[in-house]
Amino acid sequence: MCGIIGIVGTAPVEARLIVSLKRLEYRGYDSAGVAGFTASGVERRRAAGKLKNLEAVLAAQPLIASVGIGHTRWATHGPPTVGNAHPHQAGRVTLVHNGIIENFAELKAALTAEGRVFQTDTDTEVVAQLLDRELGSKPPLAAFKATLDQVRGAFALVVMIDGEPGMLLGARNGPPLVIGHGDGEMFLGSDALAVGPFTNRVSYLEDGDFVAIEHGAARVFNQAGQPVDRPAQVVPQSPALMEKGNYRHFMEKEIHDQPEGCQRTIAAYVDALTARAAMPGGIDFAVLERIQIVACGTSYIAGLIGKYLIEPLADLPVDIEVASEFRYRQPALRPGSLVIAMSQSGETADTLAALRWCQARGMRSAAVVNAAGSTMAREVDVVWPIHCGPEIGVASTKAFTAQICVLTALAIAAARARGRIDAGEEQRLVRVLLEAPRLIAESINLEDAVRGVAAEVAKARDVLYLGRGPMYPLALEGALKLKEISYIHAEGYAAGELKHGPIALVDENTPIVILAPFDSYFEKSASNMSEVMARGGQVVFITDPEGQAHAPAGARVVVTTPRCDPLIAPLVMSAPIQLLAYHVAVLKGADVDQPRNLAKSVTVE
Ligand code: AGP
């Protein structure tokens, strides 16, 4: 999960490399570096830590070049030191890499045996050494192809070759790489966001492609070395969504963006005039036998909420599994199933692999994604975009609720197609869904109540989140949010499982967040609450007005979300758990948008 950029420019590139790397920092921020063709040859500038450290280096030693490359790193091999920071060099080669070279150990051994001396612990350096060796006997493109034929693994590369100052090479096998088409300038970047400040005309390289970009031209080749055409497409730009505005963090902004984001999402899947739900792409839910959802992290949790909505409403079996398990355990698939990949980035390696596993066995495929040009979006039969705009905070918030909106619309459309509901009920449910943005906004406005309990939770060593029914996945999400940005250990649990072990955790120092709207599960959740309180547990109760009125004696209701139909309770109850994690992290002084060890898009397994 690193970010890479290359510019064959007609003007100085230092500042533009930094602008692009700032947009790529969400992909990793352990170290950063740039390199360029200067008057005195190829020069590098690198720094450990955040991009601002590299900017300080450049302030002292500017990089005067009009062709150059840049990298922001999420460490896979080798600690995040300046020595391991990209760009890496060997002889005539300077390059940046996103991904993992799986056979780097054997290649390194062979190259070392040939007398080559390695400077770093990284897998990336092997590619530079290999290419430098191949350049001894081949011209640049042939040497590059010979190198790519020898490396195995997932990689996106951008390469400079000393002596070829007007050219950059690029290659893609797994992690994405796009070509940006400028006016007399060309760009290579990890995604359209990376080249967005310079151009909105983008080509997407396919796995196995390699490319040479020069002033005003790009020559693309497939794995066999045959020239191929990857046409440029215009990518809508949303610079406003890239800025924090008057928020302190992107995560805060994105939590507050949810009403508008969900409104855009819902509008793509329902007709507000006829109050009908419709999923584009021609999937016939009437005959569909099963849905298999594959996803990771928060996207997995959104999919699990989808299961709780689709099965009862449409009587359509939904299997869901974390992609990293699914892809290796030889699952017994059934033809006539639809695989749905859930992914904000559309690039998560495990989800992509699980999707391809299903496609290879003849399953029809769909993707619920945010990044329209992502690999998943380009490889599936049907794309269901979530339309929530770029999500920069590593902790997913607006994409989570947007994904739930898509699956809620799918549940309604499938129920209608399968004759489980009539037109009247469909219209009622669609109108319920159309209310969600307003009710999400009301939930967000409860921020002060949430902030009030954040100080207490911030002192905890462990936090337990409990829920039943669709609130169980939401308990998982609340725990994931808290741990990934505040570093407090938290666990989400099915409330009915409390007595099967977790209740042993309960004492006066353990906040227990209980998510319980006044639904068919409420009575049982209320008794769980009494069990916890009887043992001194500090309950943080998140409910709705009826739940507050029926709360067990002594329960401390912290947040009362607006009354809503159970269909959209997961949407309406998301904001309090997102805001709780956010305010706890802020109180702890954590790096909210770029938590340690994480990256926004996990493009390696
Ligand atoms: C969620 O807050 C995390 N950042 C992480 O779990 C994320 O949801 C997961 O890595 C999946 O990413 P994707 O949606 O881009 O596939």
List the helices and strands and how they pair.
Elements: E1 3-8, H1 14-24, E2 31-38, E3 41-48, H2 51-60, E4 67-73, E5 88-90, E6 93-101, H3 104-113, H4 124-134, H5 140-150, E7 153-161, E8 167-173, E9 178-181, E10 186-189, H6 192-195, E11 201-204, E12 210-214, E13 217-221, E14 227-228, E15 233-234, H7 239-242, H8 250-256, H9 258-267, E16 270-271, E17 276-277, E18 290-295, H10 297-314, E19 318-322, H11 323-326, E20 337-343, H12 349-360, E21 364-369, H13 375-379, E22 382-385, H14 398-417, H15 423-444, H16 447-458, E23 462-467, H17 471-486, E24 489-494, E25 511-515, H18 522-534, E26 538-543, H19 545-549, E27 557-560, H20 569-572, H21 574-587
Parallel strand pairs: 18-19, 18-20, 20-21, 21-22, 23-24, 23-25, 25-26, 26-27
Antiparallel strand pairs: 1-4, 1-10, 2-3, 2-4, 5-6, 6-7, 7-8, 8-12, 9-10, 9-11, 11-15, 12-13, 13-14, 16-17
Bound molecules: 2-deoxy-2-amino glucitol-6-phosphate.
Summarize the structure in words.
- The protein has 605 residues and is an alpha/beta fold.
- The protein folds into 3 domains: 3-237, Glutamine Phosphoribosylpyrophosphate, subunit 1, domain 1 (4-Layer Sandwich), CATH 3.60.20; 250-442, Rossmann fold, CATH 3.40.50; 445-594, Glucose-6-phosphate isomerase like protein, domain 1 (Rossmann fold), CATH 3.40.50.10490.
- Helix content is 37%, strand content 23%.
- The protein has 21 helices and 27 strands.
- A hairpin with a 5-residue loop joins strand 7 (153-161) and strand 8.
- Helix 3 (104-113) packs across helix 4 (124-134), helix 9 runs parallel beside helix 14 and helix 10 runs antiparallel to helix 17 (471-486).
- Bound molecules: 2-deoxy-2-amino glucitol-6-phosphate.
- The site of 2-deoxy-2-amino glucitol-6-phosphate has 15 residues, from helix 10.
